[in-house]
Structures are given as structure tokens and as C-alpha cells.
Amino acid sequence: MGKKRILIIDDEELFTKLVKLNLEKTGKYEVRAENKGAQGLAAAREFKPDLILLDILMEDMEGSEVAAQLKNNADTVDIPVVFLTAVVKKEELASGCGVIGSHPFIAKPVSTNELIACIEKNMYKL
Amino acid sequence: MHKIPDIIFLWLRNDIDVVFFVYGLGFAVMGLAIWLQPKKGSSFRLADCLWLLSGFGLIHGINEWLDMWIIIKGDNLGLQVFRSFALVISFLFFFEFGRQIFRLDSPNPSCIRAKISRYLPWWLTWLLGILVLVLGFVSAAPWENVNIWARYLLCIPSGLLAALGLFSYYICQKDVLRPLKVRKYFLISSLALLIYGILSGLVVPRGTPLLSHWINIDSFFAAAHIPVQVFRALCAVAGAWGITGILSIFKWESMERLQIRVAERTRELTKANELLRVEVAERRQGDEKLKRNYEMQGVLNKMLFISLEDISLDEMLIRFIEQITAISWLVLESKGSISLVEDDPGILVMKAQKGLSEPVKNMCGRVPFGRCYCGRAANSGEIIFSDHLDERHENRYEGMQEHGHYCIPIISVNKKILGVLNLYIQRGWHRDESEKEFLVAIANVLAGVIERKKMDEALKAAYIRFQETQSQLIQAEKLTAVGELASGVAHEVRNPLGIILQGVNYLEENIPAKGEDISETLGVLKEGINRADKIINGLLDFSRFTKLDLRPEQVNSILESSLILVKERLKTENIEIVRELKDNLPSVPADKNKLEQVFINLLLNAVQAMPEGGKVVVRSYAKRLAQEKDGVDRRTSNHFHAGDQVVIIEFEDSGVGIPEENMGKIFNPFFTTKGPKGGTGLGLSVSRNILQMHEGLIYAESRPGKGTKMTVILKASGRG
Q1: Apex CA B330: angle with CA B327 and CA B331, to 5°?
Q2: Residues B559-581: pLDDT tens digits?
Q3: Chain B stretch 531-550, residues whose beta carbon is closer than 8 A to a beta carbon of chain A
Q4: Nearest CA of chain B to the CA of A75: how many Å?
Q5: Test the A interface: residue of B502, B539, B542 with most A CBs within 10 Å
Q6: Is the ipTM of this complex over 0.95?
Q7: B200-219 burial string, b = 16+ CB within 10 Å, else e?
Q8: What is this structure's pTM?
Q9: Rounded distance, CA B631 to CA B649, Å?
Q10: Which residues contact B201 (CB under 8 A, 6 or more apart)?
Q11: Exposed, middle or buried: residue A36 (CB in 10 Å: 0-12, 13-18, 19+)?
């Protein structure tokens, strides 16, 4: 079974870099990190990830806007998206991972273990 | 031997002086009797002329006694002259009497008596008197002839006139006199005077004029063998007896008058008595009225005095009704009530009562306008008065006693019906104007006080609302600012925290040979991240208005679950929990999780106040809020009203307490005395926010060094 592709779109460059390192270190994931919304969209079409981690508050583009465009594109419409946010109370999401409305969420700060748990939980949920 | 009549004749002839004595005595007695009989003011006209008969009787009596004197002592000229004058004068009296009585009471001017009366003018007596003297003195024997002429001219007509006059007087006055049974006296005296007139006027001393030489005393004696004086004396005695009898009519009259006067006097006295009684009654009534006025004034004064006291309107109304129903002469059994129009227009709500039974209190607790007496008074704005139970008394109950009512509408200056004063009165009570005025005055005082009180209370409520709104505005503004800040802070802080945590995770995985100190350092880093994150969470909690998930919850079970969550902590800190939880508390509409968060906050605060360990009393009970006075009832939030059913939760610790200067700040965000290692300083403010969203209340009471009591008040589910 090949590695799962994870695309992380977050304007915190250090954060994406460390997440990429930590996830790839497990040997189960191939991670691509993008720090701009637009590049993220392009990467999604090209990289065809199995799951996208998407920050909500980014400098160039709102995460919700990115998500909307993903849904509008036939290539990306089926890719599960897990939002990353710093302004949701952690307690509101079970072990840092939960659902607000119909969207899965991860609250920062999040540990690698929590992140993996959340990815696994949402990966096959379609 | 003489026969008995002979002896009498002899005696009469020889002792004629005795006959004269009796003769004179008869007339004298008659004269005296008439004279002594009080007749003044008599309605009998007879009284006007009787004095003449009296004069005749007395003078003629003297005349006869002079005759007696002459027989005993012998005659002389002086005596003869005196005697003759006495005789003439006495006959003049007799004639005048006859003339006057004859003229009395002639009912019909055409009758004989009236006709004859015309020939009896006043001067006739004088004329005859002069004629007697003239005729006497022109003769040779003047004194003898005066005597004879006086008898002819005066005595005969006198006797006739007197007899006729006297008897006709009786006839005319028959109606009055008959019941007095004096007919015989009139008859006897009339006859006596008539016979006397004849015997004395016709049987004269022997002389020359007219028939005197033919019919005289001597010829009478020669014929009758008895001196004429004997018959005359008998006439005098009979006349005296008759006249004395007639005089009884004056006695009767005076008696009658006395009786009339007594009756009149009695009537007058009765009238005076009646007047006096009326006056006394009026005076008493006046006194009673004065007393009542005084009492009414007193009640008004007391009411005005009470109105100045600083008490609630309800309490004031109770005091008022006590004063009003204490007016014993007006209010039956001290029963009455005051009802006011409150939030529901058209409904009278009983606010104060005195002496009313439970059924009445229930029945008249809420009365719509137009129903029963009170409703009618409110509807019409007029005083409703009833002196008995009539068909208008629609609120009735079993065993209701007969009574009347006064229902006085309480009307404001701008003609608004504020309520009704209802008083019980006796059946058959008579109202009067002054009591009506008094009741209107009472209603006016009530109206003034109620309006003022309502205005005061409205002002107070408006002020409290204003204060609350202001503090809520300030709070909301603060929260908005804090919310924005919190979101910003969360974003700005959590992103680096996320990087750090990922970095730590990376290091944990990638440092091949981890020394003890490295692992420890990484652990401390993670703990630091957690703490920072916790602060951000608290900040977000505080700033965010999360929608509550309200369900009817049992406070005790939330308390128990909160206690379970902090059980370990309590154990390690050596804290004893004392439960004083009341069973069967009403449920409260609450968000279980939020309320749990509040209770945990309060428990942890208590734990932190007792670093050496101690005791926390957790108490819960239900209560109905009373007047705004003491303790938990002294509240300003307008979520609560008197009469609300609430559940109260208290956490009382034996900790260090809160210094006085900090009491005002404990609910402020970020206020903490626990230092950097303590809490976030957001616990109490978050708790307060949660409770405010529950329309609840939290406040603290503390005695530094002794401990702190935190009190939470929540409204019970539903009404009551």
C-alpha cells in the first residue's frame, strides 16, 4: 500500500515544514506543503492529495474561499478537507479534531499524534 | 190654753226684733256671700251685676238691723233719717240690679224682654231715686213717705225685674248651667226676690200715698195674723240660700278654669318637655356628630402620617385599611379591603384587607370591572352604597351573613380609576352626607398616595433598569473588545504554539539518544504550550457568547457531577466537602455543561483559598423571593421579582477570605490574586457571564481570615 498524499496549505511556513517532516517521518505519508492559497489550489490539482489540511486564516486568501474553489473543480471536489484553525476552542473538538457545521476541524496547537489521528479519521470518510 | 199657732203668733208679735234680726241676717249673708265670692274674669255676665245685689243685701240687711235696733232701743230722728236713706239706697241697688240683669242676654231683639229693656235706660234708676225723695219731702211726713214711695216706685219693679231677669238668665244659659244643677237655686232665688218685691213693695207702713192707707202692714197683720216681716225674712233667707247656690257656678267656673289652666299648663309643660327632649336628642346627636367628625379627622391625619413613612405601597395599604376599618360606628365587624388596578386593566386586585374570611379573600382577590359592588364602583366612578344584600352583590358564598357595603372608587387627579375601597356596614345603615364626604376624602388620600408610590416605584425601577442597562452596555462593549482581542490573540499565539509543538514533536522523534534532561525539557516545553493554550481558551470562553442548551435540570445532580470531576484535586488538597443539599428541589432551566463549569470554577476557587486544607459547605435550597430587603432578596437585577421561586446554591469555604478592597473586583476579567501559577483570572467573570445568560445571579460575601461564601441564584422552571 503506497503512501497517502497529504497537502497542507498554511501561511505559517515553519509550521508546514515541521508538519511535513513529522508526518513523513512516520513513513506513511507523502506531504506537500504550500503557504499560499492560490498555490495550494494549483498543488491540489497537480499533486492529487488524499487529504488537504487547510488553514482558515491566511494572508492572501481565506481558507473557506480555497475550500469553495476546491469544491468547484471536478478534479478536487472529492478530496477531503480538514480545516486548521487557531481561534476554535480546543475543548470543542474531541482531542483537537472535530466538526464544526459539516466541516472537520483541527485546532492549533496540535501534536503530531493528534494530527495523524484526525487525518486517519477523515481520510476515508466520503 | 192657747193653741200652738196662737203661741207662734204671739211670739212673732212680741218678739218681732228676732224676726228683724233674721231678716237682716238673710240679706247680709246674701250680700257677704256675693261679695266674698271671687268672680273676677268670669265668663258669666251675671257676675257683672251681682255686686249690685250684694250692695242691696248688705245695706238692706243693715236697714233691717236698724229696725231691730229701734225696737230694742227706741226710735229717734237720727235713726229714722239714716234708716230711710239706707232703705232708699238699698232699693236703688236692688232696682239697678233688676234693671241690669233684665237687660242681660236678650237672645232675640224682638222678644218681650228686649222690647221692655228699651224702656229701662241707665238714668231711670237715678230718676226714680230723685222722684222718691221729691215725693217724700213734698209731703207732711217726709220720712214715712220716702219709705212708702221707695217701696212703691223702687221695690216692686226691682222684685219683678230681678226675678224675671234672673230666671230668664238661667233659661238663656241653660246649656251651660243645666249640667251644674243650679236650676232650683235660680228658681228659688227668682221666686224669693219676686215675692219679696211684692211683700216689701206693696205691703208698706200705714201712710197717705196711693194705697198705703188701705193695704199696709197693719191691714196685712189684721188679715194674716202674722207680721209681714216674717214673710219678708223668709224671702230673705230663701233668697240668700238661692243666691248662695247660684254662686256655686263661679266656684265651678273657677274650678273649670283651674282645670283648663292645669290642662294648658300640662300641655305647655309637655310641649316644653318634648322640646327639651328634642333638644337633648339633637345635642346628643350633635355631640355624636362632633365625636365622629373628630374621629374622621383623626383617621385622615393618621393616614397622612402613614403616607409619609418609608414603607412599600402594599404595606402602606395594609396600614390604611387597618385605620379605616377601626372606625367602629361605621364599619361592620372591622371588615374591609382595598383593591387596585394593576397590570391587567379592568381587573381589581385585592391588595389589603381586614377581617375577611378565606372564601371572600379568594372570591374577591380578582374582580373584573362591572361585577359585584366593587366592580360597579370601578366601572361607574361613583360610590356604590347598599344597606342590604341585593342582586348587585354577585360574589356570594355559603353562609354569608346579611350586611351592607360602601364601595368607594379611588380616582386619580386625571380621572383614572386606581382601585376601590370596600367597607362592610350594618344592614339598614342610614348614610349621611358628612360620612360620604369623609369617604371621598379617604379615597382622595389613597389616590394621592397610590399615585405617588407608583411613581416612586416606577422611578426606582427605571433607575435600576438604567443602571443595569448601563452596566450591561459597558459589559457588552468590553466583551466585544475582548472578543476581538481574544480572537486576534488566539490566532497570533496559537500559530507559534502550533509551530513549537510540532517542533517539540519533531525533536522527540529525531533526537537519537535522548538524555533525561532533554526529555524533561521537551516535557516542560509541552506543558508551557498547554498553559498558554489554556489561557487562550479561557479568553475565548470569556469573550464568546455561546448559545446555551437550556433544559430543565436538577441542580443537585449537576453539583454531584461537578464534585466528581474535582474529586481527586479535593483529595490531594485535603479538602472536606459537606453536602447540605435539599431534596425535591424544583428544576431549573440550565445548560448542564456550562453550569458544571461554573460550579467547578467556584469549587476550585474555594480549594485555592485553603492552601492548608479545610472545609467547603455545598448547600442548595429553594426559596420564594420576598420583599427586597435582606440577604439574597437584596438584588438589583430585574430578572427577579418578589414571589419568584428560585433555587439557591451556596459554596462556603473556611479559607483566607477576600479583602474588602478586592470585593468589587473579583468578577473583573483577568483579576487574580493567585499569582502567575494560579488561574487565568477569568474563572469568576466567565462564571458570571454564564449565570447572566441563565438569567441568574452570583455574588460573594467574605470575611477575611474566616472564609468566603459564593451564592448562585437560579430561577426555577415554569411559573412559581
Answers
A1: 75
A2: 998 888 888 888 888 899 999 99
A3: 533, 537, 540-541, 544
A4: 30
A5: B502
A6: no
A7: bbbbbeebebeebeeebeeb
A8: 0.41
A9: 14
A10: B151, B152, B154, B155, B156, B157, B158, B159
A11: middle
